[in-house]
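Exercise 7.
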Amino acid sequence: MTSPRPRPGRLADALLLHVAAASRGRPDRWRVELGLGTAGAVLVDLALAGRVAVRPGHVTVRCADRVDDPVADEVLGALLLDNRRRCLEGRLEHLAPHVYEAVLERLLAERRLAFVPGGSGGSRASGRPGRLAGFTDRRRGGRHLPARPLAAPPPGPHADALAALLRATRRERTPPGAPTPPEPAGTVCAAVAAALRSAAQTLTCPF
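Solution. The predicted structure, written as C-alpha coordinates, is:
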Protein backbone atom coordinates (compact mmCIF):
# COMPACT_ATOMS: atom_id res chain seq x y z
CA MET A 1 0.00 0.00 0.00
CA THR A 2 1.45 3.33 -1.02
CA SER A 3 1.39 6.23 1.41
CA PRO A 4 -0.51 9.42 0.49
CA ARG A 5 1.54 11.81 -1.59
CA PRO A 6 2.68 14.87 0.36
CA ARG A 7 1.10 18.16 -0.62
CA PRO A 8 3.62 20.99 -0.38
CA GLY A 9 2.73 24.60 0.18
CA ARG A 10 0.43 24.37 3.19
CA LEU A 11 1.42 26.89 5.82
CA ALA A 12 0.09 24.79 8.71
CA ASP A 13 2.22 21.83 7.63
CA ALA A 14 5.33 23.99 7.28
CA LEU A 15 4.72 25.56 10.70
CA LEU A 16 4.35 22.26 12.54
CA LEU A 17 7.28 20.62 10.73
CA HIS A 18 9.52 23.57 11.59
CA VAL A 19 8.61 23.45 15.28
CA ALA A 20 8.95 19.66 15.37
CA ALA A 21 12.52 20.03 14.07
CA ALA A 22 13.37 22.95 16.36
CA SER A 23 11.96 21.18 19.45
CA ARG A 24 13.73 17.89 18.67
CA GLY A 25 10.46 16.09 18.10
CA ARG A 26 8.45 17.57 20.96
CA PRO A 27 5.88 19.87 19.31
CA ASP A 28 3.19 18.74 21.74
CA ARG A 29 4.86 20.74 24.51
CA TRP A 30 3.59 23.83 22.69
CA ARG A 31 0.09 22.59 21.89
CA VAL A 32 -1.65 25.86 22.78
CA GLU A 33 0.74 27.97 20.72
CA LEU A 34 0.80 25.54 17.80
CA GLY A 35 -2.96 25.07 17.88
CA LEU A 36 -3.47 28.80 17.41
CA GLY A 37 -0.62 28.99 14.90
CA THR A 38 -1.86 26.13 12.71
CA ALA A 39 -5.45 27.41 12.84
CA GLY A 40 -4.15 30.82 11.77
CA ALA A 41 -2.12 29.24 8.98
CA VAL A 42 -5.21 27.48 7.61
CA LEU A 43 -7.13 30.77 7.65
CA VAL A 44 -4.29 32.44 5.76
CA ASP A 45 -4.35 29.71 3.11
CA LEU A 46 -8.15 29.96 2.81
CA ALA A 47 -7.91 33.73 2.45
CA LEU A 48 -5.24 33.44 -0.24
CA ALA A 49 -7.51 30.94 -2.05
CA GLY A 50 -10.35 33.47 -1.96
CA ARG A 51 -12.56 31.39 0.33
CA VAL A 52 -12.59 33.70 3.34
CA ALA A 53 -12.04 37.37 4.06
CA VAL A 54 -9.91 38.12 7.11
CA ARG A 55 -10.13 41.55 8.69
CA PRO A 56 -9.14 42.83 12.12
CA GLY A 57 -11.70 41.44 14.50
CA HIS A 58 -13.55 39.00 12.27
CA VAL A 59 -13.47 36.46 9.45
CA THR A 60 -16.24 35.86 6.92
CA VAL A 61 -16.78 33.14 4.33
CA ARG A 62 -16.71 34.49 0.77
CA CYS A 63 -17.01 31.22 -1.14
CA ALA A 64 -17.94 27.72 0.07
CA ASP A 65 -16.15 25.87 -2.75
CA ARG A 66 -13.75 23.23 -1.48
CA VAL A 67 -9.99 23.56 -1.75
CA ASP A 68 -7.41 20.81 -2.23
CA ASP A 69 -6.90 20.36 1.52
CA PRO A 70 -9.21 18.25 3.74
CA VAL A 71 -8.22 20.15 6.90
CA ALA A 72 -8.96 23.52 5.29
CA ASP A 73 -12.23 22.17 3.90
CA GLU A 74 -13.23 21.11 7.40
CA VAL A 75 -12.35 24.54 8.78
CA LEU A 76 -14.38 26.17 6.02
CA GLY A 77 -17.35 23.96 6.89
CA ALA A 78 -16.98 24.80 10.58
CA LEU A 79 -17.00 28.51 9.77
CA LEU A 80 -20.18 28.09 7.72
CA LEU A 81 -21.96 26.13 10.45
CA ASP A 82 -20.87 28.30 13.37
CA ASN A 83 -23.68 30.78 13.94
CA ARG A 84 -22.01 32.46 16.90
CA ARG A 85 -20.70 35.97 16.44
CA ARG A 86 -17.09 35.15 17.31
CA CYS A 87 -14.27 37.64 16.86
CA LEU A 88 -11.21 36.53 14.90
CA GLU A 89 -9.39 35.59 18.11
CA GLY A 90 -12.43 33.59 19.23
CA ARG A 91 -12.51 31.74 15.92
CA LEU A 92 -8.85 30.81 16.30
CA GLU A 93 -9.37 29.57 19.88
CA HIS A 94 -12.36 27.49 18.78
CA LEU A 95 -10.54 25.91 15.83
CA ALA A 96 -7.09 25.48 17.42
CA PRO A 97 -7.33 22.07 19.18
CA HIS A 98 -8.86 20.23 16.24
CA VAL A 99 -6.65 21.82 13.60
CA TYR A 100 -3.47 20.96 15.50
CA GLU A 101 -4.54 17.30 15.87
CA ALA A 102 -5.61 17.07 12.22
CA VAL A 103 -2.38 18.55 10.85
CA LEU A 104 -0.26 16.30 13.08
CA GLU A 105 -2.18 13.22 11.93
CA ARG A 106 -1.86 14.23 8.29
CA LEU A 107 1.90 14.67 8.52
CA LEU A 108 2.18 11.25 10.14
CA ALA A 109 -0.05 9.67 7.46
CA GLU A 110 1.99 11.27 4.67
CA ARG A 111 5.18 10.13 6.43
CA ARG A 112 6.58 13.62 6.60
CA LEU A 113 6.68 13.23 10.37
CA ALA A 114 8.15 10.03 11.78
CA PHE A 115 7.15 8.77 15.20
CA VAL A 116 10.13 7.61 17.26
CA PRO A 117 9.07 5.57 20.33
CA GLY A 118 10.72 6.30 23.65
CA GLY A 119 10.17 7.80 27.07
CA SER A 120 7.30 6.89 29.35
CA GLY A 121 4.31 5.01 28.02
CA GLY A 122 4.15 2.67 25.06
CA SER A 123 3.36 3.50 21.47
CA ARG A 124 1.55 0.17 21.01
CA ALA A 125 -0.60 0.25 24.10
CA SER A 126 -3.82 0.55 22.12
CA GLY A 127 -4.95 -2.14 19.73
CA ARG A 128 -8.04 -0.24 18.62
CA PRO A 129 -8.45 -0.01 14.85
CA GLY A 130 -9.02 3.27 13.09
CA ARG A 131 -7.28 6.48 12.21
CA LEU A 132 -6.70 7.62 15.78
CA ALA A 133 -5.78 4.24 17.25
CA GLY A 134 -3.12 4.68 19.90
CA PHE A 135 -2.90 8.40 19.23
CA THR A 136 -2.73 9.52 22.86
CA ASP A 137 -0.35 6.73 23.82
CA ARG A 138 2.18 7.43 21.10
CA ARG A 139 2.16 11.15 21.84
CA ARG A 140 3.19 10.44 25.42
CA GLY A 141 5.71 7.77 24.58
CA GLY A 142 7.94 9.23 21.90
CA ARG A 143 8.88 12.02 19.54
CA HIS A 144 7.62 13.33 16.23
CA LEU A 145 10.58 14.17 13.99
CA PRO A 146 10.60 15.37 10.37
CA ALA A 147 11.26 12.39 8.12
CA ARG A 148 13.64 14.40 5.95
CA PRO A 149 15.59 17.65 6.28
CA LEU A 150 13.42 20.72 5.88
CA ALA A 151 14.02 22.85 2.82
CA ALA A 152 13.83 26.59 3.36
CA PRO A 153 10.93 28.09 1.41
CA PRO A 154 12.01 30.35 -1.45
CA PRO A 155 11.85 34.09 -0.70
CA GLY A 156 8.38 35.46 -1.24
CA PRO A 157 4.95 35.80 0.39
CA HIS A 158 4.87 32.18 1.60
CA ALA A 159 8.23 32.46 3.36
CA ASP A 160 7.28 35.84 4.86
CA ALA A 161 3.96 34.47 6.13
CA LEU A 162 5.67 31.42 7.65
CA ALA A 163 8.27 33.60 9.41
CA ALA A 164 5.53 35.87 10.76
CA LEU A 165 3.46 32.93 12.02
CA LEU A 166 6.51 31.45 13.74
CA ARG A 167 7.21 34.76 15.49
CA ALA A 168 3.58 35.08 16.58
CA THR A 169 3.47 31.48 17.81
CA ARG A 170 6.71 31.92 19.75
CA ARG A 171 5.51 35.31 21.03
CA GLU A 172 8.59 37.00 19.61
CA ARG A 173 8.76 40.62 18.56
CA THR A 174 9.40 41.37 14.93
CA PRO A 175 13.11 42.24 14.63
CA PRO A 176 14.07 45.59 13.09
CA GLY A 177 14.36 45.33 9.33
CA ALA A 178 12.22 42.19 9.07
CA PRO A 179 9.75 42.23 6.15
CA THR A 180 6.23 43.28 7.05
CA PRO A 181 3.94 40.23 7.09
CA PRO A 182 1.84 40.27 3.93
CA GLU A 183 -1.91 40.38 4.26
CA PRO A 184 -3.83 38.40 5.31
CA ALA A 185 -0.95 36.94 7.34
CA GLY A 186 -0.36 40.21 9.20
CA THR A 187 -3.95 40.37 10.47
CA VAL A 188 -3.99 36.68 11.42
CA CYS A 189 -0.62 36.90 13.21
CA ALA A 190 -1.88 39.83 15.27
CA ALA A 191 -4.92 37.76 16.26
CA VAL A 192 -2.72 34.74 17.16
CA ALA A 193 -0.55 36.97 19.35
CA ALA A 194 -3.63 38.49 21.03
CA ALA A 195 -5.14 35.05 21.70
CA LEU A 196 -1.86 33.86 23.23
CA ARG A 197 -1.70 36.91 25.50
CA SER A 198 -5.26 36.21 26.60
CA ALA A 199 -4.47 32.54 27.26
CA ALA A 200 -1.35 33.43 29.25
CA GLN A 201 -3.27 35.94 31.34
CA THR A 202 -5.98 33.37 32.08
CA LEU A 203 -3.43 30.76 33.13
CA THR A 204 -1.59 33.11 35.46
CA CYS A 205 -4.67 34.63 37.13
CA PRO A 206 -5.04 33.47 40.75
CA PHE A 207 -8.18 31.69 41.90
